[in-house]
Design brief:
The structure is a single chain. Helices cover 16% and strands 37% of the residues. It contains one helix and three strands. The protein starts with 7 loop residues before the first strand and ends with a strand. The chain is α+β, with helices and mostly antiparallel strands. It has a three-stranded antiparallel beta sheet with strand order 1-3-2, with helices on one face.
């Protein structure tokens, strides 16, 4: 919609946690895929954030946050 202005309000966050083996340690030679990097880049493109971390209890935690159009 050319020329249309969208106001962003009401941020929404989604957090997903699994109980798998977690993220590979840095320098381990594992984890050379593009999935997590693509996820972060796509969230940035729409003005959102993406946090990815190893969960203390094991597994991985991913948190996505973005403001919704009013």
């Amino acid at each position: 919609f050319e020329g249309e202005q969208v106001r962003f309000q009401r941020p929404v966050a989604i957090e997903v946690h699994d109980n798998g083996v977690g993220l590979p340690p840095a320098g381990s030679g594992r984890g050379h895929g593009h999935g997590l990097g693509n996820l972060q880049r796509r969230m940035e493109e729409i003005g959102g954030t993406c946090g990815i971390a190893a969960a203390a209890e094991g597994g991985t935690r991913v948190r996505l946050a973005v403001a919704l159009a009013a």
